[in-house]
Amino acid sequence: MSELLMSYKDLRNSIELKESGWNNLRSTNCYAFALGLDIPSGKLMPFGLEYPYNVGVIGGQKYELDYFDLLGLSLEERLQIDLDALGIKYEESSQYDIPVSDEHNLNWLIAMYKQKDSSDFHFLRKSSSNYWLHKIGTHGSISNRDSKNYLITDLDKSTFVYDFGDEVINYNLEKVYKLSLHR
Questions:
Q1: pTM score, two decimals?
Q2: Which residues lie below 8 Å from residue 70, measured CB to CB, with a gap of 6+?
Q3: Residue 110: per-residue pLDDT
Q4: HSE (CB half, 13 Å, CA atoms) of 35?
Q5: C-alpha to C-alpha distance for 64 and 56, rounded to whole angstroms
Q6: pLDDT per residue over 85-124, tens digit each?
Q7: Any idea of the CA torsion for 58, 88, 103, 17, to the nearest 10 degrees?
Q8: β-pairing, 161-163 with 89-92?
Q9: Could you tell me if 78 and 59 are in contact, meaning their C-beta atoms sit under 8 angstroms apart?
């Protein structure tokens, strides 16, 4: 597995829960956005087999896991490896929780979606205005709308289906997590 180009401490200190002004739209994905990592993938890991914002790659490096071994783990297990490596506490939560942050503690909600019978994923982050935000793909923008163009306020009523011409991908909600990072 390729080595990370940043320390875990620097990576953790880079977490910023921006709701607008995301700088690296072309080199991050929905997972990077959910974690608040507005760092171009090339500054995190050299180009190679692994994309640093695939779930599990950041933590897999710390715990010396082979990339192909990571793929054998569930999406939830890979998420937990990353969060542990970054020192982010997590617990399952309700989408209706309203986490409060202060100058020493970041608290936020993320929603984890998965394509049925696939390792493909999609993540959202709850905004301070109580709607959900997500980054659409690796080259997409930040949006507060689902694939039917509805404002994302209730995950149970939101739809995430993307038509790529030869493939239609439907993402299903797996879990909502409250994340906490002490600085």
A1: 0.94
A2: 56, 57, 60, 78, 81
A3: 98
A4: 29
A5: 11
A6: 999 999 999 999 999 888 899 999 999 999 987 888 999 9
A7: 50
A8: unpaired
A9: yes
